Automatic annotation (TrEMBL), chain A:
This is U2 snRNP component prp10. Its main location: nucleus. GO terms for biological process: spliceosomal complex assembly. Keywords: mRNA processing, mRNA splicing, Nucleus, Repeat, Spliceosome. The keyword Repeat applies. It is found in: Nucleus. GO terms for cellular component: spliceosomal complex. InterPro entries: ARM-like (IPR011989), ARM-type_fold (IPR016024), PP2A/SF3B1-like_HEAT (IPR054573), SF3b_su1 (IPR015016), SF3b_su1-like (IPR038737). Belongs to the SF3B1 family. The lineage of its organism: Eukaryota, Fungi, Fungi incertae sedis, Zoopagomycota, Kickxellomycotina. Residues 995-1072 form the Phosphatase PP2A regulatory subunit A/Splicing factor 3B subunit 1-like HEAT repeat domain. Residues 1-24, 36-59, 113-133, 179-231 are annotated as: Disordered. It comes from the Eukaryota. GO terms for molecular function: mRNA binding.
UniProtKB/TrEMBL annotation, chain B:
GO terms for cellular component: precatalytic spliceosome; U2 snRNP. InterPro entries: SF3b5/RDS3-10 (IPR009846). GO terms for biological process: mRNA splicing, via spliceosome. It holds the Pfam family SF3b10. Coiled coil: none annotated. This is Splicing factor 3B subunit 5/RDS3 complex subunit 10.
């Protein structure tokens, strides 16, 4: 029913009044009059669904007076109360969160990126003081690699066993096997809970629960001992990450849990077992993102739901194993959209939860925060335990201070964040690396991290690292683990941030520390780790200088032990080249040496990586550095000949980039040879290979040694056959590559052969394919001309183009129109025979009922007009006819179409000239004047351009009265939003004034100075200045200066501003008017009003510059005397204007005069005076120091110093 | 901080020039800079250097050399710091 729908949507749950139960028939409902008081059962509810936003200001729910008194609906009161808190924050953030719109990064990662969750923050103590040694880490990584191998083996064995049908799933899971076989694992996932259990056992326990999660705020848990935990699922497994995704099973996370006893640091209010929870936060599964609807039920809820009797709380069966496979955990119920759920829900419960979360918005020592989420509790809970800080030791206090800053940065309002960010930077050293970095890194690893949070946290880490310097050294590896995943993020800002952080770490910690941190991961078993490590290595190399990192890169690239290391080395070189660009040139030979051997490696992956690295190096080095590649040419070349498949793609790419560096003969040879392979690979179905081939074919045919005939006979036919297929147009990026390659081939083979092969595609059925063909043909003919296109081909081409135009889909992109236009332009005079046909098609389409078609036609008219004009007399007639039709269409109501029509008219006016214009200008302009009032920007711009053109070229053909009417419309345009419109309007004033004389226009403009709107006034002053410039200043100045006598602030300021613009525009013509305006300016310079003086200073600036060298010293000096007292202004604009005016006076009057003025106050007793005078002195000194030498004052010697410059006294 | 409404960048720009000063510049510093500028001007300008050398009866090169030497402490030793 309408009403019930409205109820649920407009009433906040929990506001008073019961929601009418959903029912198909309201009238059938009986209600209790006692309960509902006065008889109107609909009181308090809207009776209709509000369709528009029309009555938004009326409160949606009005309360029944009788019972509640007059009051606002609860939700509005709440809103008002929270409004003050929320003033600063992004109001959408929480709303989005509530609606389930997800900004959580973990939720949109692909499988590959998700692998970051399996990495661990290195197994040292959380406070960073313990520190595992490098050897430990190498050993750990080795262990992981062995484990990975083992698992792979086991999986293989299992798979074969399963094939034999002998597998027993319930005997032993493979993971358990691994655990049994990996003896060095320090802790077991099933060992941790021991102490947890003991701590729980001490709390007053009612009974064990069958379901409970440690996820809900732990601080609250410790305060309310009611919320006890069940024993069996206290194991960390439920809540924690199952260790990994196959590569390193069971090990990583579990080790962390056990090994981090650092409860005091992070853990919420919990005394003992918090280490486990902390780690839980760090590595929480992305799938289990906290949502109010998706939480585990608490004990209280279960108590409420289930009766006390008849139910027994079961112990977990001994054979129970929690879900450990991440894939299944990921499939757990996703966070549902609250708004969209129609089913049953417990409103009150949800409310209670939200309130419970919002309770902690106020954090001691931090103040009110916009939000504070349950996950935050696990890191920041420590701040809420209410402990007296004075009792803590210094280190704990520092930790808390750092935590508070981080909390403000993460959750605070913009202002809070800024301040905290600055403090964190300033106090990083004092707080200590551990205190600052630990929470930041922990948060960055949290599962529920969102974009914005990640951004601010990374920035915070960056700031802190800049200050910490060498202190950050123990954290290098952990920072890298956290930041490296950002290097392969889709968002390029994230990538840039990550690079910045890593390069700051490198600068802070030094190369040795960075390499020590990266070294163990270089041959890691997990490809993901190697990939990110290679990128990090490249960033380090670029940050600390390629030369410094080169030995390490070489060692890695030639590693004998593991092919993974060689691959990583090659990748690092590749990324270094991509980052350093031309910066690799000095080290090119060394870098090529690093990867050269990899080309002949036994592993395919290494060979590909090495070839790609060479490609990147060659691209970065272009067009220099071929000498460095000498050693690798042969293996590259052999590779191209011998390889197949993806390996070949990499080698081809490398050859493609190396060829352009070579000298002509070599390049020609290699290009010709490579073309054979390239042509063969045209048929490859592999998209990557196709992309590479498209690139390489461009590079090969671009070398000068490849003959056109070769391209024409050997390359072109196959190319067109393989790439000009309809499916090529489907992928936009691929289509662009195909077009680029086509144009490159045309440049090598000549335009005609290419066009000949493409004309058929112009008439293809698929619109996208046609568009692609039109684009390629247009670029070909506009770059190469049509000289080699014979008559028959020309006919085919025009046929195709016309077909493409006729079939143009209404939603065609603008580029397609432009392409059609450029084909026509390229044809030029040769288009004459087809003009009639084009014109009739255009005219027909101009009257099409579809607005998009009309707009396209008008846009094409603009393209056709210049072509038609070059085609001779017939063309002009045609254009005049089209112009008449356009004129008749000016009643158009779609603004976009109208703008296109006006642009088309202007294009025609441009080519055929105003005298020949049909309809005559005198008819056209009156029709345009009302259109100037149109509010659409596009229309405004097109119209003002056309009017300006007419005013410029044929103003005398229109009666003056008409122009005056235009002037009034133009005034409105002076405050148009778009700058081109305003500029065109101002220029048009100038044209009109020149046509009909300045008096009337000026009167209009001067009147306009009285309006309130500031922008309008400013534009008016510009227009006045333009009028003065185009009609000589003496026609305007008297009226303008007379206007200054109007006792109105706006007008006077406007006059001054107009004068400033005027003197700026008229240049040294100002010398004739200096004496005339000097009294006015002097008056303005001593005005009480600050703005007056500022404007006058601006006038002086332009005036002084304009008249310098024209012997106007006396009036300018007079003005300078009035200006000088203003140097003590403090308003930024005013003092700027005054100083600039003084600077201009220096140009006009010479620096010596300014120096003499300045000497008066440079050693004044008052610092405020000295400040200004020194500033002016500096200004003069920097600009004109040599000129000052002769004018420094004579200072007598004072023992022991001799201050006289006696050389000046020499006389010969 | 930014009392004159200009950005601090201009201040920094000015501060890069040796001869510029601020409200705390002493008379000695200011005059020393003046002298150095003057001497540099003489040395760079051949006609002026010639004029001075004729007046002093020295060779041009020696005059220039003496001026370069003088640029170290053109006004004599700096005054003693009063305190602090």
């Amino acid at each position: 029913m309408a009403d019930s729908v409205e109820d649920t949507s407009t009433k906040a749950p929990g506001s008073n009044g019961k929601v009418v139960e959903s029912s198909s028939d309201l009238s059938a409902l009986k209600y209790d009059t006692e309960l509902y008081g006065n008889g109107d059962k609909y009181a308090g509810y809207d009776r209709s669904i509000e369709t528009g936003g029309s009555n938004n200001d009326v409160p949606a729910v009005s309360m029944a007076k009788g019972r509640f008194g007059i009051t606002a609906p609860r939700e509005f009161i709440d809103e008002l109360q929270t409004a003050e808190h929320d003033a600063d924050e992004d109001p959408f953030k929480e709303i989005l969160r509530m609606r389930g719109i997800n900004r959580v990064i973990a939720d949109r990662e692909n499988d590959y990126q998700k692998r970051r969750h399996t990495r661990k923050l290195s197994n040292e103590r959380g406070d960073g003081t313990g520190g595992s040694t490098y050897a430990d880490r190498v050993r750990a990584v080795q262990l992981e690699n062995e484990e990975a191998e083992l698992v792979a083996k086991i999986k293989k064995a299992e798979a074969s066993g399963r094939q034999a049908g002998a597998s027993k799933w319930d005997v032993e899971t493979p993971i358990q096997q691994v655990e049994a076989q990996a003896p060095q694992r320090r802790k077991r996932w099933d060992q941790t809970p021991a102490d947890v259990r003991s701590s729980v056992a001490m709390t007053p326990q009612r009974r064990s629960r069958w379901d409970e999660t440690p996820r809900v705020a732990d601080g609250a848990a410790s305060e309310t001992p009611k919320r006890t935990r069940s024993r069996w699922d206290e194991t960390p497994m439920l809540d924690r990450v199952a260790p990994d995704y196959g590569a390193t099973p069971a090990g990583g996370a579990a080790i962390d849990y056990g090994a981090t006893p650092a409860g005091r640091q992070m853990a919420a209010g919990l005394a003992t077992p918090a280490g486990g929870h902390m780690a839980g936060v760090l590595t929480q599964q992305p799938g289990s993102v906290v949502d109010a609807r998706n939480q585990y039920q608490t004990d209280e809820e279960l108590d409420a739901l289930l009766p006390d009797e008849g139910y027994v709380i079961m112990e977990a069966p001994a054979s129970y194993v929690a879900i450990r496979t991440p894939a299944r955990k990921l499939m757990s119920t996703p966070a549902a959209e609250i708004g969209g759920v129609a089913g049953f829900r417990m409103e009150a419960e949800t409310e209670a939860r939200i309130e419970a979360m919002e309770e902690v918005r106020e954090v001691p020592g931090v103040g009110a925060l916009p939000f504070f989420r349950a996950e935050d509790m696990q890191v920041f809970g420590q701040l809420l335990d209410g402990q007296d800080e004075t009792e803590l030791d210094a280190e704990a206090r520092r930790e808390r201070q750092a935590l508070r800053l981080v909390l403000k940065i993460k959750n605070g309002t913009q202002a809070q964040r800024k301040v905290a960010m600055r403090q964190l930077g300033a106090r990083a050293c004092e707080l200590g690396a551990a205190a600052v970095l630990n929470p930041v890194l922990a948060l960055l690893m949290a599962a529920g991290l969102e974009d914005q949070e990640r951004h601010v946290l990374v920035k915070a880490a960056d700031r802190a690292l800049q200050r910490l310097g060498a202190q950050a050294r123990p954290f290098v590896h952990r920072i890298l683990v956290v930041v490296e995943p950002l290097l392969i993020d889709e968002d390029r800002h994230a990538r840039a941030e990550a690079r910045e952080v890593i390069s700051n770490v490198s600068k802070a910690a030094g190369l040795a520390a960075m390499l020590a941190a990266l070294r163990p991961d270089v041959d890691h078993a997990d490809e993901y780790v190697r990939n990110t490590t290679a990128r990090a290595l490249a960033v380090v190399a670029v940050a600390l200088g390629v030369a410094a990192a080169l030995p390490f890169l070489r060692a890695v690239g030639r590693s004998k032990r593991a092919w993974q290391a060689r691959q990583t080395g090659a990748r690092a070189v590749r990324h270094t080249a991509e980052l350093a660009r031309a910066g690799v040139l000095p080290h090119l030979r060394g870098l090529v040496d690093c990867v050269g051997a990899g080309l002949e490696d036994e592993h395919q992956a290494v060979r590909s990586a090495a070839a790609l690295a060479l490609a990147a190096l060659a691209e970065a080095a272009a067009p220099y550095g071929i000498e460095a590649f000498d050693s690798v040419l042969k293996p590259l070349w052999l590779g191209v000949r011998r390889q197949r498949g993806p390996g070949l793609a990499a080698f081809l790419k490398a050859v493609g980039f190396v060829v352009p560096l070579m000298d002509v003969e070599h390049a020609a040879h290699y290009a010709r040879e490579a073309l054979h392979v390239v042509v063969r690979e045209f048929q490859s179905p592999d998209t990557q290979m196709r992309a590479v081939v498209l690139r390489v074919v461009q590079q090969c045919v671009a070398t000068s040694g490849v003959s056109p005939s070769l391209v024409r006979t050997d390359v072109l036919p196959d190319f067109v056959r393989c790439f000009w297929a309809r499916r090529a147009a489907l992928d936009r990026r691929h289509a662009r590559h195909v077009i680029d390659a086509t144009v490159a081939l045309a440049a090598a083979a000549g335009g005609a052969p290419v066009v000949e092969r493409l004309v058929a595609h112009l008439k293809d059925e698929s619109a996208a394919h046609r568009a692609m063909a039109v684009d390629a043909v247009a670029r070909t003919v506009s770059e190469l001309g049509i000289a080699d296109i014979d008559a028959r081909l020309e006919e085919l081409l025009m046929d195709g183009v016309l077909y493409a135009f006729q079939e143009l889909p209404p939603d065609a992109a603008r580029t397609e129109l432009d392409a059609l236009g450029s084909v026509l332009r390229a044809l030029g005079g040769r288009a004459a025979p087809y003009l009639q046909q084009i014109a009739s098609a255009l005219l027909w389409r101009l009257n099409n009922p579809s607005s998009a078609v009309r707009q396209q036609a008008a846009a094409l008219v603009a393209h056709v007009a210049p072509v038609a004009h070059v085609c001779g007399g017939d063309g002009d007639d045609l254009l005049a006819r089209i112009a008449t039709v356009l004129f008749e269409c000016l009643g158009e109501e779609f603004p976009d179409v109208l703008a296109a029509l006006l642009s088309a008219l202007r294009a025609i006016v441009d080519v055929i000239g105003l005298p020949a214009m049909q309809p005559p200008v005198a008819d056209l302009l009156p029709r345009l004047a009302p259109i100037l009032k149109n509010r659409h920007e596009g229309v405004q711009e097109a119209c003002i351009n056309l009017v300006g053109r007419i005013a410029d070229r044929a103003a005398d053909r229109v009666p003056a009265r008409e122009w005056m009417r235009c002037c009034f419309s133009l005034l409105d345009l002076l405050r148009a939003y778009r700058k081109p419109v305003r500029r065109a309007a101002v220029a048009t004033f100038g044209f009109i004034a020149r046509a009909i004389g300045p008096q009337d226009v000026l009167a209009t403009l001067l009147n306009n100075l009285r309006v309130q709107d500031r922008q309008n006034r400013v534009c008016t002053t510009v227009a006045i200045a333009i009028v003065a410039e185009s009609c000589a200043p003496f026609t305007v100045l008297p009226a303008l200066m007379n206007e200054y006598r109007v006792p109105e602030l706006n007008v006077q300021n406007g006059v001054l501003k107009a004068l400033a613009f005027l003197f700026e525009y008229i240049g040294d013509a100002a010398r004739d008017y200096v004496d005339a305006v000097a009294p006015l300016i002097a008056d303005a310079l001593v005005d009480r009003d600050l703005v007056h003086r500022q404007q006058a200073a601006a006038i002086m600036k332009h005036l002084a510059l304009a008249v310098s060298g024209h012997a106007c010293d006396r009036p300018m000096l007079h003005l300078l005397n009035h200006l000088w007292p203003n140097i003590f202004e403090t308003s930024p604009h005013a003092i700027c204007a005054v100083l600039e005016a003084i600077e201009s006076c220096r140009v006009c009057l010479g620096p010596a005069r300014i120096l003499l003025y300045t000497l008066q106050g440079m050693f004044h007793p008052a610092r405020a005076v000295r400040d200004v005078y020194w500033r002016i002195y500096n200004m003069t000194y920097v600009a004109a120091q040599p000129a000052l030498v002769a004018f420094y004052p004579r200072i007598e010697d004072s023992s022991p110093n001799n201050y006289r410059r006696y050389e000046l006294d020499y006389v010969l | 901080m930014d009392k004159f409404g200009m950005h601090n960048q201009t201040e920094q720009l000015y501060a890069r020039y040796e001869g510029t000063g601020n409200a705390d510049t002493t008379r000695y510093e200011w005059l020393t800079n003046q002298h150095r500028d003057t001497l540099a001007h003489y040395v760079m300008d051949d006609s002026l250097a010639m004029f001075i050398s004729i007046a002093e009866g020295e060779s041009v090169v020696r005059t220039k050399f003496k001026m370069l030497e003088r640029m170290q402490q053109p006004c004599g030793p700096p005054p003693k710091k009063e305190d602090s």
